[in-house]
Specification:
The protein is an alpha/beta fold and 398 residues long. It is built from 15 helices and 13 strands. The protein starts with a strand and ends with a helix.
């Protein structure tokens, strides 16, 4: 029986994108290795051991999630033999996905260090470390660059989810080893069958889903335009909803994708509710939003019912395109463009760091008008991406 330890992963994060990456990895493991595989999650999210019931082919399978506290992690790295070291030593594989984009200093050096320590312990203990498909970089700090290079060269396999990450590793860091492209793991997660969009919107309308990022709406963690947007994001969202609501037979549903009750600056749910209430009154239209903190596969099910989708959270947008919903992201980092380029739809991505408000709104409305053409492209490309993810396990075994 294989033992696989998932790191930089969680099924309990408020960021449903992190959960989607984790759930998808578990689905892939069960598909390829069987349901008897011992899967555990070493998590930066939970504070105590948590048993997650994961639905697979109609059965609920228990997957344990173990807290990876900062103090214990540092002690393990410094040489203490604790439970973190035990879990690493007991595993056949360590699959480390770094929450998708945290093996980088985009969110600060502390987060990079946290996501590097398990990798470094696994290398030191000569365990099979797999860097799962993720975004590499940006790496601004010189020490961060050296540590990232060391880890990438010592890992057993390195997978990236876009070509730009490969380029950064090879050209900026000078990594000399094979780096393999695989699509984002969230493409592999199936939507829940227990909910659909018609709980919230009418069937005979053109349903536009919009994901608003609370982090961008609030100016980032520091409230001072942390991601260096060229536009006022709040104004952009308000204007976009206003313009789209003028289109005949359109119904707008706001779909949060990071749902954290205890961290308001990150909570899309509260921001979506506020926007829906304010704009419904201002525009005299019924702008709708979802009514609960849904799970990632449930959100994917809701998103899959949209006729068109716009989002600033990447995994909300992946939830859409992976179910062939025409999508126009409003990107705050380069991680979006690499994924959309791979499916020949780079023109769908707007970038508030580079474009003006009018440009973005015009581009999104053009994409909305061309949604049938975009859907046709997605229907060809998405099955190929899912197939590529399925081949990842074969490449590990080779």
């Amino acid at each position: 029986m294989k033992k696989i330890l998932l790191v930089g992963a969680s099924l309990n994060s408020g960021n449903r994108g992190v959960n989607a990456l984790t759930r998808a990895q578990i689905m892939l493991i069960f598909d390829k290795f069987g349901v008897n595989t011992d899967v555990k999650i070493l998590s930066y999210t939970v504070k105590e051991k948590t048993n997650n019931l994961v639905e697979y082919n109609g059965d609920n399978i228990s997957v344990e999630e173990i807290p990876c506290g900062k103090k214990e992690l540092v002690k393990a790295f410094m040489g203490s033999h604790n439970y973190i070291v035990d879990y690493i030593l007991q595993s056949d594989y360590i699959w480390d996905i770094s929450e998708g984009d945290s093996f980088s200093d985009i969110y600060g050096t502390k987060r990079f260090i946290q996501h590097s320590l398990v990798k470094l312990i696994a290398i030191k203990k000569k365990k099979k470390l797999i860097i799962m498909p993720q975004t590499l970089g940006p790496y601004k700090n010189k020490i961060v660059q050296k540590v990232a290079k060391y880890i990438l060269e010592k890992a057993d396999k390195v997978f990236v989810r876009d070509e730009l990450s490969k380029e950064i590793a090879e050209k900026e860091l000078g990594v000399k080893r094979e780096i393999i492209y695989k699509p984002d793991m969230a493409f592999y997660m199936k939507p829940s069958k227990k909910i659909n969009i018609h709980k919230f919107v009418e069937k005979d309308k053109i349903n536009i889903g919009i994901n608003v990022s609370a982090l961008l709406y609030n100016g980032g963690y520091n409230g001072k335009n942390m991601f260096n947007l060229k536009v006022n994001y709040k104004n952009l969202v308000d204007r976009l909803i206003e313009e789209l609501s003028k289109i005949e037979n359109v119904e707008i549903l706001l779909v949060p994708h990071v749902l954290v009750k205890d961290i308001e600056v990150e909570d899309d749910f509260r921001v979506s509710k506020k926007i829906a209430e304010e704009l419904s009154a201002k525009l005299n239209k019924n702008i709708k939003t979802i009514d609960d903190y849904y799970r990632e596969d449930e959100l994917k099910a809701i998103i899959s019912g949209c006729d068109f989708f716009i989002g600033s959270r990447m995994h909300a947008c992946i939830g859409a395109i992976s179910t062939t919903v025409p999508t126009s992201p409003m990107a705050y980092s380069r991680k979006f463009i690499g994924i959309w380029e791979k499916i020949g739809l780079a023109y769908c991505v707007t970038d508030p760091r580079k474009q003006k408000e009018d440009e973005i709104i015009k581009a999104i409305i053009e994409n909305f008008n061309n949604r049938d053409k975009i859907k046709e492209k997605l229907e060809k490309e998405i099955p190929l991406l899912i197939e590529k993810i399925g081949s990842l396990v074969k490449e590990l075994e080779e």
